[in-house]
């Protein structure tokens, strides 16, 4: 699904040099490399504040903590997402309100969002799923109408952009009140271990986010608010700093691979290739197709695996049906018919910046062969 070794080799000397510097000065936690990376990412995104942290899940949790939400407050989020988006809501004793997604773009359905707003709604978490921007203009219009903060889950979309109705282009994660991302190794910008970051243009909020991520303190041993321990290691900052100048290239290569997939699969009547929103610069963290309802996804996956082609299901069980929420009383469900339809039909193909044309052509050939065979039975 991803080839991190191919990506590493051209950067090997630079990364090794950076590792040696960290090892020599022994500044393993919050060393100068971490601040250097934060400053570089801030410049890249065009956002005032970047607060590195331990991982993407922590980023979401810290963001919710900074908003001062209380148990019983409602947080609207799609169910068609990775569990991290919603587990932090439950962890803080908040109420997850699950809404449906658009069947073409896989992101939060705007009508569903508006219908879910109540006087208990205290945050909205749109997810830029698979690397494509959610409809931020519409989301912000609703959020502003009801004075609700927006936390962008950008774990799969760092490097992506949104073409706003105001005529400006924004990097994803910088549009809402707070943006969050993950540097899990397979991400478009990935570390060699866990890592994450939080973004905001709000000076007061930035100070609070920094404090929460560092045990609730500004000055060491003087703890003003409840916080947690979530910091980016200096070694991971070295890796991320080496990769950041190449992020746009990585994303463009993914888009080129997606172009090849699109062209190679467009004539297959049993495959729907991912739609591209004209307002989004899609960075294809995943290339996710939809199979016709009568196609056995298991048979497709088994055949591909026999040919040495990996594939993944993101995600086989929607959040609202996870066992963890069966006994969690504070869950609000709205119509999730699209989510329930997508879950058994989506399939993600290999997608990374090092894919070769001959590899893509082989995947396309074998996928078309098995899907056409199953579809015509």
Kindly list the characteristics that best describe this protein.
377 residues, alpha/beta, Aspartate Aminotransferase, domain 2, Aspartate Aminotransferase, domain 1, 2 domains, 4-stranded mixed sheet, 4-stranded parallel sheet, globular
The computed structural class is: alpha/beta
Q: Spatial order of the strands in the main sheet?
A: 1-9-8-5
**Number of E-type strands:** 16
Largest sheet: 4 strands, mixed
Topology order in helix (H) and strand (E) letters = HHHEHEHEHEHEEEEEHEEHHEEEHEHEH
Mean pLDDT: 97
Shape descriptor reads globular
Strand content: 15-25%
List low-confidence stretches.
Answer: none
**Count of folded domains:** 2
For the CA atoms, what is the radius of gyration?
A: 21 Å
Number of helices, counting only DSSP H or I runs of 4 residues or more: 13
Determine the CATH superfamily of the largest domain: Type I PLP-dependent aspartate aminotransferase-like (Major domain)
- Percent helix range: 25-40%
N- to C-terminal distance? 29 Å
Which class of the largest domain in CATH terms?
Answer: Alpha Beta
Explain what this protein looks like in three dimensions.
- The mean pLDDT is 97.
- This protein starts with a helix and ends with a helix.
- Helices cover 38% and strands 15% of the residues.
- 45% of the residues are buried.
- It has 13 helices and 16 strands.
- α4 (56-66) packs across α5 and α4 (56-66) packs across α8.
- It is of the alpha/beta class.
- It folds into 2 domains: 4-245, Type I PLP-dependent aspartate aminotransferase-like (Major domain) (Aspartate Aminotransferase, domain 2, 3-Layer(aba) Sandwich), CATH 3.40.640.10; 247-375, Aspartate Aminotransferase, domain 1 (Alpha-Beta Complex).
- A 4-stranded mixed beta sheet has the order 1-9-8-5. A 4-stranded parallel beta sheet has the order 4-2-3-15. It has a 3-stranded antiparallel beta sheet with strand order 7-6-13, with no helix packed on it.
